[in-house]
Amino acid sequence: MAMRYTVARALRRPQSALWKRCLPAPATSALQSRRCISTAETNKDVPKPAVKFTSETYPTIQRDSRFSQVTPEHVGYFKKLLGGGSAVIDAVTNEGASEDVEAYNSDWMRKYRGHCKLVLKPASAEEVSKILRYCNENKLAVVPQGGNTGLVGGSVPVFDEIVINLSRMNKVRDFDEVSGTLVADAGCILEVVDQYLAERGCIFPLDLGAKGSCQIGGNVSTNAGGLRLLRYGSLHGSVLGLEVVLPDGTILNDLCKLRKNNTGYDLKQLFIGAEGTIGIVTGISIQCPQRPQAVNVAFLGLESYEKAQQAFRAAKGQLSEILSAFELMDGTSQNLVRDVTKNKKPLDGEYPFYCLIETSGSNTEHDSAKLEAFLESVMEKEIVSDGVVAQDETQIKSLWAWREGIAEVSGHFGGVYKYDVSIPLKEMYQLVEDTKVRIEKAGLLGDTDEHPVVAVTGYGHMGDSNLHLNVCVRRYDKKVESILEPFVYEWIAKREGSISAEHGLGLAKKNYIGYSRSEGMVGLMKHIKTLYDPVITLLMFSAVSSLITNGCRAQRVPDVDVHHE
């Protein structure tokens, strides 16, 4: 009891004008403004080297000679179709547009870079249809692209593929305020759609740190999970219908607005998480719940991963229906955010682990009472060592910035190897520790320039056992890659986890699908790809496409003990 009193007093003692260590005051109203991702210019003082071409980094990947190169004649067709102007970025006939094309050639991590010379920006499904039909007939390879915020190189070309960017398809088509059903173009920015819904008392059932850039079509195509999955489930359950353009130009219009529709096969599920390999999503019908009227956010410090698991179990039991997020962050990730942004951490002490808990409900007094009871319980049991609770919307955004800012600061020193994986919760953080030990033994981790690795961090969603393993580097290095791969995938496979939790396979994981899928399942995927895209117009370097074109089999897990290498 004495320990509970001491910790409770620490939580209640004001520390600064910004942070108040106290149990919940009345909760804030529903969030409507932009959520901060970071609070400083993270890369301002670090020179950015040129991004190396993917074809040079991975010389074993060869351009398929069956596909045509883009000619001025092809460009002329697309300009006539789309009207030229900003809808067509042409570096085929206009070398002066090469710099404009570069933004679509590289991913935001600066790890992948293609040779694309033509970017098309259709404004409707009909235009997408005509583009794909023409490309299919003329054997022109295509890469669909949304906000280009992915982690696996799936939205950028490898060679000279045509990029179809959906940013001009950005309109809300319909919204039913009674049922909460939204129909919108695939190119709508997630944050913009969420703000539109906020004005109407609803919320988009997905939240990401990249919400200011990512597009909802890309979210659906990768089955993005994000920060609200604990509360609202995956997009497989929220999406009611899709409009998809198949590789041959056929428009599949299934923008159903009903939650119940058992008429034949539920074909939309094939395209959710397919990464654009069998069709380009151009429209979405999705169920959007009522926006919570009471939001609380607590930021906690814990002494071990075991304590974090105990806190999560307690939160599920005591907060239950109002628990909307439970995020795990290790101390290394939080120190990176502090060092790069130069901001003061929410808690004075240093802890190995931190958890961010969000509750969302409709009754302020009820939610505050439940959160207070939860905090008192975990303090009394010495599960939580310290914590703060946000007192207003500004503080809520500031606390979230410590979680959402990790992704951005991780690449501050030059680059980052990112692994988005699912692991049984009990062993989730062990991967971070084993990876760090492996890198240290290889002499790759250190404070000097001769060491390529700056830090190994782990954070993620406790609610769905989704870990983000980040290896922050000063430069991309083959020695680091050889230490990480296939070790990470072998480690995960031996625990029956998934090598891709919410970002897909893309180019980065195309050779490793066999670590999470059986030979029979991979074979079925090949059949589906062949059925929908026999020419392999879409994403010719994706995992399934490569298995078809190269006639190779998915790599299997070798019989080794990854713990004692």
TrEMBL record:
<dbReference type="InterPro" id="IPR004113">
    <property type="entry name" value="FAD-bd_oxidored_4_C"/>
</dbReference>
<dbReference type="GO" id="GO:0005739">
    <property type="term" value="C:mitochondrion"/>
</dbReference>
<dbReference type="InterPro" id="IPR016169">
    <property type="entry name" value="FAD-bd_PCMH_sub2"/>
</dbReference>
<dbReference type="InterPro" id="IPR006094">
    <property type="entry name" value="Oxid_FAD_bind_N"/>
</dbReference>
<dbReference type="GO" id="GO:0071949">
    <property type="term" value="F:FAD binding"/>
</dbReference>
<feature type="domain" description="FAD-binding PCMH-type">
    <location>
        <begin position="112"/>
        <end position="291"/>
    </location>
</feature>
<protein>
    <recommendedName>
        <fullName>D-2-hydroxyglutarate dehydrogenase, mitochondrial</fullName>
        <ecNumber>1.1.99.39</ecNumber>
    </recommendedName>
</protein>
<dbReference type="GO" id="GO:0006108">
    <property type="term" value="P:malate metabolic process"/>
</dbReference>
<keyword id="KW-0496">Mitochondrion</keyword>
<keyword id="KW-0274">FAD</keyword>
<comment type="similarity">
    <text>Belongs to the FAD-binding oxidoreductase/transferase type 4 family.</text>
</comment>
<dbReference type="InterPro" id="IPR016167">
    <property type="entry name" value="FAD-bd_PCMH_sub1"/>
</dbReference>
<dbReference type="GO" id="GO:0004458">
    <property type="term" value="F:D-lactate dehydrogenase (cytochrome) activity"/>
</dbReference>
<dbReference type="InterPro" id="IPR051264">
    <property type="entry name" value="FAD-oxidored/transferase_4"/>
</dbReference>
<dbReference type="Pfam" id="PF02913">
    <property type="entry name" value="FAD-oxidase_C"/>
</dbReference>
<dbReference type="InterPro" id="IPR036318">
    <property type="entry name" value="FAD-bd_PCMH-like_sf"/>
</dbReference>
<dbReference type="GO" id="GO:0051990">
    <property type="term" value="F:(R)-2-hydroxyglutarate dehydrogenase activity"/>
</dbReference>
<dbReference type="InterPro" id="IPR016171">
    <property type="entry name" value="Vanillyl_alc_oxidase_C-sub2"/>
</dbReference>
<keyword id="KW-0862">Zinc</keyword>
<keyword id="KW-0560">Oxidoreductase</keyword>
<dbReference type="Pfam" id="PF01565">
    <property type="entry name" value="FAD_binding_4"/>
</dbReference>
<dbReference type="InterPro" id="IPR016166">
    <property type="entry name" value="FAD-bd_PCMH"/>
</dbReference>
<keyword id="KW-0479">Metal-binding</keyword>
<keyword id="KW-0285">Flavoprotein</keyword>
<keyword id="KW-0809">Transit peptide</keyword>
<dbReference type="InterPro" id="IPR016164">
    <property type="entry name" value="FAD-linked_Oxase-like_C"/>
</dbReference>
<comment type="function">
    <text>Catalyzes the oxidation of D-2-hydroxyglutarate (D-2-HG) to alpha-ketoglutarate. Also catalyzes the oxidation of other D-2-hydroxyacids, such as D-malate (D-MAL) and D-lactate (D-LAC). Exhibits high activities towards D-2-HG and D-MAL but a very weak activity towards D-LAC.</text>
</comment>
<dbReference type="GO" id="GO:0046872">
    <property type="term" value="F:metal ion binding"/>
</dbReference>
